Amino acid sequence: MIDIKNITKSFGLLKVLKGIDLHIDKGEVVSIVGPSGAGKTTLLQIIGTLDRPDSGEVIVDGIDTNRLSTKKLSDFRILHIGFVFQFHQLLPEFTAIENIMIPAYIAGLSQKQARKRAEELLDFMGLADRATHKPNELSGGEKQRVAVARALVNNPAVILADEPSGSLDTKNKEELHQLFFDLRDKFGQTFVIVTHDEGLASITDRTIHLRDGLIETPIIPQIPEEECSPLETTTPSESSSL
Ligand SMILES: Nc1ncnc2c1ncn2[C@@H]1O[C@H](COP(=O)(O)OP(=O)(O)O)[C@@H](O)[C@H]1O
Ligand SMILES: [Mg+2]
Fold this sequence. Notes:
Helix content is 36%, strand content 23%. It has helices spanning 40-47, 70-80, 96-106, 111-124, 140-152, 170-187, 198-203, 236-240, and strands at residues 2-11, 14-24, 29-33, 55-60, 63-64, 81-84, 158-162, 190-194, 206-211, 214-215. The strands form 2 sheets. Strands 6-7-8-3-9-10 form a 6-stranded mixed β-sheet, with helices on both faces.
């Protein structure tokens, strides 16, 4: 579903991504964690074709996105990628259902088709009775679920979520996380989620740790048998300083 090969990205002199390789299968729910400034948002934006890497390949749904012109890229994005952000970013002057319909219009669906699809999604989210509410008439959790419905409206290959539950209380947070897994189980939806929430990271299929522009590979200490004696007190740092 997603193949990232040796991605690098700098902003001026700051090297943010230093060679990222990542493969994500259809139906996987993958979390990306790491300290602030590690490059998580930059990586997500590059996977989502909102930004281009300096070098490396980004293949989404079998398409090498580096080869697409800027115009083709925006068509590609609307059809293949759904975004969910920390703050819902719904348009305040439109109702919940209209917000969900907008990307479907842009993708070329008729008003009738777009409305039908949006209604199905609102139903699935348990928000049918909120369809004609504007964002300021919805709770934080409801707004985030409408934002997820909007991301889903064109059946994207992947949903990219950047700290989607970062502004929710515990109950709404847990409901949103459950929704991701329900969507995966029911529709095989693929998710890549940047999160600081350890609870969410621990239940995803895989967690990618990003640090200093690289994916950290967990180091499993391998202690040779002869060093396992309880009398052995030399620590690795001591022995390396010899
Ligand atoms: N458009 C930009 N221009 C300059 N610097 C940027 C830009 N976007 C991000 N950065 C810098 O790149 C680094 C990584 O940012 P980001 O990907 O947002 O990190 P994270 O999401 O892990 O907190 C930070 O030091 C940030 O200030
Ligand atoms: Mg970020």
